[in-house]
Amino acid sequence: MAKVTTQLIPAFVDSLQSRGRYTLTRDEALAAAGRETPTVDAALRRLRRRGRLASPRRSFYVVVPVEYRSAGCPPATWFLDALMGFLGQPYYVALLTAAGLHGAAHQQPMLFQVMTDRPTRGARAGRVRIAFHMSRSVGIVPVVRLPTETGVIPVSTPEVTALDLVRFASASGHLGNVATVLRDLADRIGGSALASAATRYDAPDIQRLGYLLDRLERTEVAEALRGALHGRRLRSVLLSPGARRRGGTLDERWRVVTNVEVELDS
User: Fold this and answer.
1) Are 32 and 47 in contact (CB under 8 A)?
2) In this structure, are 24 and 111 located in the same domain?
3) What's the domain count of the chain?
4) Element (H, E) at 54
5) pTM to 2 decimal places
6) What are the Cα distances from residue 247, in Å, to 101, 126, 200, 240, 244?
7) 110 with 195, same domain?
8) What is the pLDDT of residues 150-174, one digit of tens each?
9) What count of Cα atoms within 13 Å lies in the side-chain half-sphere of residue 185?
């Protein structure tokens, strides 16, 4: 049986790729080989050593076509939807990765950034690194579904991307980088859509985004965002909550204390 399994698993992987599928689970491999656990696991390990499979999560495998053999894994967009289905978690592509997919990446992000609904450790396969961030709004904020080589993936809308960039500023680079990306993203942001999405966010996130949009002279979009603050009790917030106050000035319009200088990247 071991010899048969040695032949079956590579053939099974080849058959998946021939049908345009690039993921499989250990259970699927067991079923294909007749559930001889030790020999199936050994066959999967051999394929990993040969670079034919990558494994961003235990018992979940990505088929590596020859053109991605040197990278150790195809792009995350090829397998992310299947991976999140395997984990049983809702998600959307977020932050700098989403901004890049909307054509507003100032620089290529090192990590593929994903929003999900619970703490989730990062994943790595070959050169692909995926970072997960948690939000209680996953599943209720608007997304767009973008086509990939293997299907579609949910990506935060430009409006949600802008709000997330400010909310998760530490994961988006320094504030100057956030503002630079917002500058490139602003033309894709609709005022009414932004105000609607902002109802899912805390007031400080809205205040900081509004201040940055004003700094970028996107006053029409910023004014639409103010509607999301109606009826909320506002307090003064630091532009950069992780930095010391250091006597920054108060922007009266947004109740934001400018405790750091925001310098846009060229």
Assistant:
1) no
2) no
3) 2
4) strand 53-57
5) 0.92
6) 38, 46, 31, 13, 9
7) yes
8) 999 999 999 999 999 999 999 988 8
9) 34
